[in-house]
Design goal:
The complex is a heterodimer of chains A (about 100) and B (about 170). With about 100 residues, chain A is mainly α. Helices cover about 70% and strands about 0% of the residues of chain A. Chain A starts with 14 loop residues before the first helix and ends with a helix. In chain A, about 5% of the residues are buried. With about 170 residues, chain B is mostly helical. Chain B: One of its GO terms (molecular function) is mitochondrion targeting sequence binding.
Chain lengths: ~100, ~170
């Protein structure tokens, strides 16, 4: 099971680690997406459904909600990064926030 | 839909019925369609549509009410012996056209003002509730009565706000 550069042209022996990383990244992206969708839906769309399309107010709200979510994510990540430079507990706490 | 966007760029799944070679055309068409939708939902488009609709309704009302108009041929400026029948008829129609244009302009202004202000308020608040049409009605009524003094501005604003609340209930 070691495809060290001889067969078919696929990547070399770090393959399982790469796959593992890719799977983790996929999980993280899916998790972020699901959180984003449910939190912006809870914030922006009222429970009284008068029609099926999004109103102007609701679509503006969703644009702002997504942009704020990513902004918050980025800022918290930066702070955690700077904190994680001082103490080694930065990395594992990030995914569970 | 309902799938997290975890595909590498350029390999997103196409909707059924479109083959791989038509992907570019599909993306182009989708881009133009998105622009169209965005344009239709923008504030400017809504103002224009409301203005044109208001103009049409005002012209229609004026057309209908001109048939009930009080008409006395002696009150017209011309001595009636001078004009032939077609000229008199064209005078009547021209008067009707002027009335339609005037009332259409008025209704169009009201509609465009109200729709534009409501769209701006809604974009600012990012909420869709009852406050938007009431506030927009207040501002629109105030603007329409701006030449008649401050009390008329307030009164007109309150009246138009109540009217727009009634139509939006």
């Amino acid at each position: 099971m070691s495809f060290l550069g001889r067969s078919g042209g696929s990547s070399t022996g770090v393959n399982p680690e790469r796959v593992e990383m890719a799977v983790q990244e996929l999980d993280m992206i899916t998790d972020v997406f699901n959180r984003l969708v449910s939190s912006c839906h809870a914030k922006c769309i009222s429970t009284r459904y008068a029609e099926g399309d999004l109103n102007k107010g609701e679509s503006v709200c969703i644009d702002r909600c997504v942009s704020k979510f990513f902004e918050v994510n980025k800022r918290v990540g930066e702070k955690l990064q700077s904190m994680g430079g001082n103490a080694p507990s930065g990395q594992s706490a990030f995914g569970s926030l | 839909p309902l799938v997290a966007p975890v595909f590498p760029a350029g390999k997103e799944p196409l909707p059924p019925g479109i083959s791989e070679e038509e992907r570019e055309n599909f993306l182009q068409a989708k881009k133009y369609q998105d622009y169209m939708t965005m344009g239709m939902e923008s504030c400017a488009a809504k103002t224009v549509i409301a203005g044109v609709g208001g103009f049409g309704i005002g012209a229609f009302f004026s057309l209908m009410s001109s048939s009930f108009a009080y008409e006395d041929p002696l009150l017209r400026g011309h001595p009636s012996g001078e004009l032939s029948r077609t000229q008199k008829a064209s005078e009547v129609f021209k008067e009707m056209g002027r009335g339609m244009w005037r009332s259409g302009k008025g209704f169009g202004k009201v509609g465009a003002l109200f729709a534009g202000i409501e769209c701006v308020i809604e974009s600012y608040r990012a909420k869709n509730d009852m406050v938007n049409p009431v506030a927009a009605g207040f501002v629109a009524g105030g603007v329409l009565a701006r030449n008649a003094g401050p009390k008329a501005v307030l009164g007109g604003g309150v009246a138009f706000a109540a009217f727009s609340a009634a139509i939006d209930l």
